Amino acid sequence: MDVIAGADELGARCDALRAGGQAIGFVPTMGFFHDGHLSLMRAARAERDAVVVSIFVNPLQFGPKEDFGSYPRDIDRDLALGEKQGVDLVFAPDVDEMYPEGPPEVTVDPGPIADRLEGASRPGHFRGVCTVLSRLFHLVGPSRAYFGEKDAQQLAVVRKMVRDLAFPVEVAGRATAREPDGLAMSSRNTFLSPRERRAAACLYSALRDAVDAVLDGVTDATSLVRKMRERIEAEPLVSLDYVAVVDEDTFEEVDEVLRPARSLVAARVGKPRLIDNVALPVRENAGRED
Ligand code: PAF
């Protein structure tokens, strides 16, 4: 596994891979790997000829009061884990290498999906994500790029960017990796105290409550949101940001679950802000009058 810090070198190495007929699987990350990241690397290893991983905590996608400075970093551990997954190239630039002229003046407008939910709570976040991914996609030229479904809205925004701007890359979403009690794996979980860690499990329990309710015949989003809220608000260590039931593609809130939809949650548990989501089942005859 080679580790590269220079953008030009990355571009040249990836050009050579493609010229040699190798299809590149790309896993963009901010590092501090957990099994969610590693499962994306394993998928890329199984499905593509060459695997490129980026490790870059992208300042553009953090607000001024967010955790850019304290975001967990451990490059040596990440490199050891990446090597074990059979990664070919790791791109680990510093901020000056990624943005040599300073914060870019030209950025990618992520469109209306990005105004909702995470976008409303974190203004500018998805613009930063789309901008860094545009640079990375151009440098790497992957045929497939891998993202975790934990960041479901990010995945929807990236899919839309790739479609609307004709990036020649396939976007592959992969299932959220979970701890045994259901908590979604996240680099930020490292900041949870043992009590907060136990409390954080209520986020997934609330999402499961919504799935169970739909399976029991509840399709009304207000009832589903109320159920999820009740579960989370019963946990004193958790401070809820939002719960929502949204259309799978547009991330607009829906009144009823009649077509593919997701329930989403964002909450602060102690210091870290955590997000999670699940796809809701659509009952076979949902929405039929007879
Ligand atoms: O999901 C992440 O880790 C980041 O948002 C990404 C896609 C690597 C862009 O910085």
Give structural notes.
Helices cover 37% and strands 19% of the residues. It has 9 helices and 9 strands. It has helices at residues 7-19, 35-47, 75-84, 95-98, 118-121, 125-140, 152-164, 194-215, 221-233; strands spanning 2-4, 24-29, 50-55, 89-91, 144-148, 170-174, 238-247, 261-269, 273-280. Strands 1-4-3-2-5-6 form a 6-stranded parallel sheet, sandwiched between helices. β8 and β9 form a beta hairpin. α6 crosses α7 (152-164) and α8 runs antiparallel to α9 (221-233). The protein is globular and about 55 Å long. Bound molecules: pantoate. Pantoate is lined by residues 28-30, 58, 61, 129, 132-133, 151, 154.
Spatially, the strands of the biggest sheet line up as 1-4-3-2-5-6
Secondary-structure element order, N to C: EHEHEHEHHHEHEHHEEE
Estimated radius of gyration: 19 Å
Helix content class = 25-40%
Contiguous low-pLDDT stretches (5 residues minimum) are none
Structural class: alpha/beta
Largest sheet: 6 strands, parallel
- How large a portion of the residues is in β-strands, by DSSP E? 15-25%
State mean pLDDT (0 to 100 scale): 96
Number of helices: 9
